[in-house]
Structures are given as C-alpha cells and as structure tokens.
C-alpha cells in the first residue's frame, strides 16, 4: 500500500508560515538546499527541477502530490497551472475553478476518501504539500512526517496542522542537522 508523507518546514514554535503566508524568513544555505533538493528531487516544483538540470529525471520516491487550495494558489498567481508536472497533482478545494490541466485533479468532496483510494492504487508514495487545514483533515491518513525544524521563532502564523484536540503519536526514525541550524526529523506511524 502507498504511503502519505507530510513534508513540511516549521519554526521552533510550530508554524509553517507567518500570518500572511510568509516563508521568506527561513534560513537557507546552498549546502542545505542541495542536499534536500537531491534527496527529495521528486517533490521539487517543476521550475526548480529544471534549474537543477533534472526536469526529465524519472521520479523514484513520489508520483503524486496532494495539497489544499492555498498551497496551490501561489503557482496560479504566476500563471503556473501544473507546478509539479512530474507528479500527478490533486488540489482539495470546493471553490477553485478547474485549471483544465490533464495532470491536475480538483478534489471537491471528501479528501480522506480520495487519499484512501490513492493509497489502494499501485505506485510510489504520495506527498502531502499542505496546508494546515488539509493536514488536519488527513492526520489519520498520514503515514510519515519529514519535518524541517528551522531555528526561528515566529510568534504567530499558520500551524503545522489545524484540527481539534486529537493527539497522534509518531515514532522518530532519523534526525539530521544542517549548516543553517535546521534539523530534519523523520517520523513514521508506530
């Protein structure tokens, strides 16, 4: 069965972005970007893959991405209707117009059921790109977490997930630290 992996960057106080979706405060270094860009090349946006010379490289870990409307909209604002052309793309939204892209599916009904259907299919992993609301809805379906914990306190912003009180236990598998002070934590369901 395919797994759903939530790969996300967070501040020390648990925010994925500022109150107005800011993410430009995360400290990045070339070494950090190179390492994660190489290891997780499948989930780099198409223009990033092209810039790294891997636009036509086959995917090896993920073949599907699922995201909420707010995660998808920044690409649309730049005229990009298929930001992950190397992946099958699902956008969960009841209000978004269909972008008429053969590789992009708008999920208008139950995202939990749709993810369960995806998991039952043959294929590689499923990448949950965000956001907080969708991650909260799909929390019970998330099999793995890859959390980039940045050495920043934001004070306010968008949390990693939005849901009612419902503790969910994950088992730590790996911890790696990088030159920018970021720690990448990998977890799985126990």
Automatic annotation (TrEMBL):
Source taxon at top rank: Bacteria
Annotated ranges, domain Bacterial bifunctional deaminase-reductase C-terminal: 7-183
SUPFAM superfamilies according to UniProt: Dihydrofolate reductase-like
Gene Ontology terms for molecular function: 5-amino-6-(5-phosphoribosylamino)uracil reductase activity
Protein name as annotated: Dihydrofolate reductase
InterPro entries tied to this protein: DHFR-like_dom_sf, RibDG_C, Riboflavin_Biosynth_HTPR
PANTHER family in the record: 2,5-DIAMINO-6-RIBOSYLAMINO-4(3H)-PYRIMIDINONE 5'-PHOSPHATE REDUCTASE, DIHYDROFOLATE REDUCTASE FAMILY PROTEIN (AFU_ORTHOLOGUE AFUA_8G06820)
Organism of derivation: Microbacterium saperdae
GO biological process terms, semicolon-separated: riboflavin biosynthetic process
Pfam families documented for this protein: RibD_C
């Amino acid at each position: 069965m395919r797994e759903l992996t939530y790969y996300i960057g967070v501040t020390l106080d648990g925010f994925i972005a500022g109150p107005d979706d800011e993410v430009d405060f995360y400290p990045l270094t070339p070494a950090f970007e190179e390492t994660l860009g190489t290891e997780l090349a499948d989930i780099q946006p198409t223009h990033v893959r092209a810039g790294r010379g891997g636009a036509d490289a086959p995917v090896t870990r993920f073949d599907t991405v699922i995201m909420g409307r707010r995660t998808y909209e920044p690409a649309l604002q730049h005229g990009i209707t298929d930001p992950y052309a190397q992946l099958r793309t699902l956008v969960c939204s009841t209000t978004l117009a269909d972008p008429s892209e053969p590789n992009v599916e708008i999920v208008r009904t139950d995202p939990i059921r749709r993810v369960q259907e995806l998991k039952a299919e043959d294929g590689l992993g499923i990448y949950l790109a965000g956001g907080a609301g969708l991650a909260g809805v799909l929390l019970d379906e998330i099999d793995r977490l890859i959390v980039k914990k940045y050495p920043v306190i934001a004070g306010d912003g968008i949390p990693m997930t939005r849901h009612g009180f419902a503790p969910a236990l994950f088992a730590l598998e790996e911890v790696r630290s990088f030159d920018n002070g970021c720690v990448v934590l990998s977890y799985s369901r126990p």
